[in-house]
Amino acid sequence: MDQERLKQFALELEDAARRYAAMDPEVRSFAGSVEGVSADAKAGRILTPLEHIPGDYYFSEGTLRKYRDLEHAYSKFQIEVTGGEPPALIAFRNRVNAQKN
Predict the structure, then answer these.
(1) Which of 40, 46, 49 is nearest to 86 (CA)?
(2) Are 37 and 69 spatial neighbours (Cβ–Cβ below 8 Å)?
(3) pLDDT band at 92 (very low <50, low <70, confident <90, very high)
(4) What is the pTM of this model?
(5) Taking residues 17-46, what's their average pLDDT?
(6) For residue 54, what is the DSSP state?
(7) Long-range contacts of residues 75-78, Cβ cutoff 8 Å, at least 24 apart
């Protein structure tokens, strides 16, 4: 788990949520549900991968999918806080990028 990436993704998630929170109470609720994990990530207090973080319900069962940038920010944060990208995914992405060039 890369602490700098984790902090960066936490900030990106907070920024994305802030954009919609004033006009959507579901976004405010979502932001409240991930606030503790996000604060811990920014402070460098997450030293081992978490098994699960709150918030996925808002995208799978709620209406937050309409905010693509918020969903993308959450996904990046979730991947990093649960251990980062698996080596197989990194290798696959590298192969695909090499084929494009």
Answers:
(1) 49
(2) no
(3) confident
(4) 0.86
(5) 97
(6) T
(7) 76/9, 76/12, 76/13, 77/6, 77/9, 77/10, 77/12, 77/13, 77/34, 77/38, 77/41, 77/53, 78/53
